[in-house]
Amino acid sequence: xxxxxxxxxATLDEVDLTDPRLHAHHDLGSFWRRLRAEAPVHWHPEAEGxxxxxxxxxxDDVVSVLSDAETFSSERGNVLDTLLAGGDSAAGRMLAVxxxxxxxxxxxxxxxxxxxxxxxxxxxxxxxxxxxxxEEAVERGEVDFAADVAAHIPLAAICDLLGVPPSDxxxxxxxxxxxxxxxxxxPDEESTWLSRNGLLLYFSELAASRRxxxxDDVVSxxxxxxxxxxxxxxxEIIFNCYSIIMGGHETTRxxxxxxxxxxxxxxxxxxxxxxxxxGTAPAVEEVLRWTTPALHSGRTATHDTxxxxxxxxxxEIVTTWMASANRxxxxxxxxxxxxxxxxxxxxxxxxxxxxxCLGAFLARAELTALLESLCELVSxxxxxxxxxxxxxxxxxxxxxxxxxxxxx
Length: 408
Ligand code: HEM
What we know:
The chain is α+β, with helices and mostly antiparallel strands. It has one domain (5-401): CATH 1.10.630.10. It contains 17 helices and 16 strands. It has helices at 20-25, 29-38, 59-67, 80-85, 100-111, 120-140, 145-150, 152-162, 169-179, 189-212, 218-224, 234-248, 250-265, 267-274, 280-291, 322-325, 360-377; strands at 5-6, 26-27, 41-44, 53-56, 72-73, 142-144, 226-227, 230-231, 296-301, 305-307, 310-312, 317-321, 378-383, 388-389, 398-400, 402-407. It has a five-stranded mixed beta sheet. α8 packs antiparallel against α12 and α15 (280-291) crosses α17 (360-377).
């Protein structure tokens, strides 16, 4: 799929947000605008045996759902696919799908390795690695920015953090990409299942080896530290390694790819960034808002409640669409413009509330390293072929972006 057409449905009910092809083939900007105006808390009808669910699109409503984990729980899953399938097998054991006291206890242990101070060494290695990747890309001239540059930066950082040895990283890249789904929208459930299990098995072995000989990495921390008065089970450790790799790889990669595309399409913004007129810090925030790699976060209502003027029943699925909230005209001036100097820019790309992205600091550091390397090493970036869009109802962006990079 080369370009995405605008989605202009006759009725709101005919749009199936669960269909990965919808997101790969269409730009949903005007659909989100219409939902925010006409039905900010919209009931998505049930289909093909799947339950219906609420679709929340306004900034303030999204923030209020994500802030209130007592009313809107993550324990039955936090993405549409698992919620519609009836639950997440890692519920109560993996950070993103755990609530209340167990969530707080596990999160407080994990906050330390994700803090700016602990990440210093990882980030220094991200800077060096990113510079090298961009240098190599400039030498080659024409590359697929998605596969040749962006894919390597987040994965190397996560592997550093988890203590995955360099010799295993190729294997982990392959498993992660295939665990995340298909390239063409036709689900290959068997290969996805095999790759997910491959990752779980890999982390199971890594955890066993760290148990006998701990190092200074997150796997060793999970193996050795007590959480709420007990050590974590082997399964809990494996699920959380899995969640870190799945949560931090593709999202960051997609923001890098979408960020470069937006810059290539807007020479004025490219000039503003490379001349230093706009700093990298606001530029990173605008890239995050613009790309919104995680389209939605899902929750389940724990009791009857009102959301806007809609009555939400206990047990119903509530999905909050950051893709829409980040373009809410009541919060962002000219929300459909890519403006690197935008301020304030309180985007929701990392969600909000108790489940706010644990890797936000790391992701920002990776994007900063990329923008700095592009500014330093690249004078002109141009498209060298059509991009390919990701088929997913959860992740948004491009899986291929051929570009020509000319050095300074
Ligand atoms: C949570 C987005 C990078 C690890 C989240 C959530 C979002 C998100 C939206 C909240 C999910 C929910 O509300 O249910 C992103 C984006 C990223 C990114 C857009 C990059 C641009 C990372 C990185 C890591 C990471 C680099 C780790 C290496 C996590 C974890 C959680 C999380 C462990 C669960 C936190 C909790 O439940 O307390 N992320 N993420 N993410 N993210 Fe990220």
